Amino acid sequence: MREVLERDKRERFGANYRAEEEKKNQKTPAQLVEHAIKTIKTLYTEIRAPGVAKTCMKTCATFIKNVQKDPSNEKFRKVNLDNNAVQTRVAKVNGGLALLKAVGFKQAEDGNYLVIEDVDAAVL
Fold it and tell me: By C-alpha distance, which of 100, 77, 91 is closest to 29?
């Protein structure tokens, strides 16, 4: 069934209809931030997991404020994912790393760091 539907869409809309669909469904950085915050707040309510969402948000806010304060400082532009505090406060929380990635942090080549290269003040 899926193959028939896929073939039908290709015939109707052309071979590159998927690329056009993906462009329409692509979210802005502000929408990604909003989605990550909503995920954290929904999954980690004060009744289910007291303090988890608050701690995650404060930690992410600290990383973001440090980058805003001094964007040229290399120390503030990196987040060590092997750090125990980052692991417990952000990485283990669904939406924590998504929030950092939404504001511009990207996975480094070695995979142990999140690095922000282009600081966009509007998104931060």
Answer: 100
